[in-house]
């Protein structure tokens, strides 16, 4: 795999605890981030806490609640074993063995596995597009300006292609820019414009990438096509929301009407 920054998100330097001599602000922020992410999926768990890098009484109580919810010894201390439980969704997303008879199936199954582990961004220090999921997709980058939809798409294709011993960078450059991928598609003649796609749906295949066009050479959002129907496509896409925003906060399964939207399609066939 090319995109391996996620591995750094799975570790802390030392056990973290209230008034701990080895407390590290970044590690405490990681812990607080995962406590808050756990609370999103388990709203009655009592693990939501501020993400400020300070392991105070609120964080300690959130840790105790997390330990209780997961059947762990309740001591309020986060060692690597407890942290492993906190970060298990990320580890499952990137390291679960994915099966598939071809690259397209591998891409779809990889995307579905990420979706099922609930990737979600956080707001840290008043900055959106932050947190461990964003950093993992964006190779350590995060913050309001770092839209992460293409980072998500490339992470999925990289992970799937690597299972077959293929390097996704032979298909497209490592980038976080929809424009870069769109331009690459035009240069390689593997980008189907929306006008053509609307009249010939056979050109759109599961595993391909959609690019939402703003202007002919400006694309503002992307995702992976998972199914094609008469007028609609199903997708899995990052940095979106229920309204289909290009700057939302989650990975979601979406349905888009490609005959009413300016969706260009980038083919992965040459990598297959």
UniProtKB/TrEMBL annotation:
It comes from the Bacteria. Pfam families: CHAP, PG_binding_1. This is CHAP domain-containing protein. SUPFAM superfamilies: PGBD-like (SSF47090). Residues 147-239 form the Peptidase C51 domain. Residues 25-84 form the Peptidoglycan binding-like domain. Signal peptide: none annotated.
């Amino acid at each position: 795999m090319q995109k391996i920054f996620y591995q750094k998100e799975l570790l802390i330097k030392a056990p973290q605890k209230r008034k701990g001599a080895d407390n590290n602000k970044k590690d405490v922020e990681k812990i607080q981030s995962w406590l808050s992410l756990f609370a999103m999926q388990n709203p009655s768990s009592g693990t939501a806490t501020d993400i400020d890098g300070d392991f105070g009484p609120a964080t300690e109580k959130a840790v105790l609640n997390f330990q209780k919810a997961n059947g762990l010894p309740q001591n309020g201390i986060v060692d690597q074993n407890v942290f492993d439980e906190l970060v298990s969704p990320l580890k499952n997303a990137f390291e679960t063995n994915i099966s598939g008879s071809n690259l397209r199936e591998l891409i779809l199954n990889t995307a579905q596995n990420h979706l099922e582990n609930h990737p979600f961004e956080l707001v840290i220090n008043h900055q959106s597009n932050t947190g461990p999921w964003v950093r993992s997709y964006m190779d350590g980058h995060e913050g309001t300006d770092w839209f992460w939809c293409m980072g998500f798409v490339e992470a999925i294709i990289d992970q799937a292609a690597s299972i077959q011993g293929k390097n996704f960078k032979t298909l497209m450059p490592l980038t976080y820019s929809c424009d870069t991928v769109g331009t690459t598609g035009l240069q390689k003649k593997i980008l189907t414009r929306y006008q053509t796609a609307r009249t010939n749906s056979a050109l759109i295949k599961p595993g391909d990438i959609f690019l939402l066009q703003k202007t002919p050479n400006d694309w503002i959002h992307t995702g992976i096509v998972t199914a094609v129907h008469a007028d609609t496509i199903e997708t899995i896409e990052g940095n979106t929301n229920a309204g289909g925003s290009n700057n939302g906060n989650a990975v979601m399964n979406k349905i888009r009407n490609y005959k009413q939207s300016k969706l260009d399609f980038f083919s992965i066939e040459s990598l297959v």
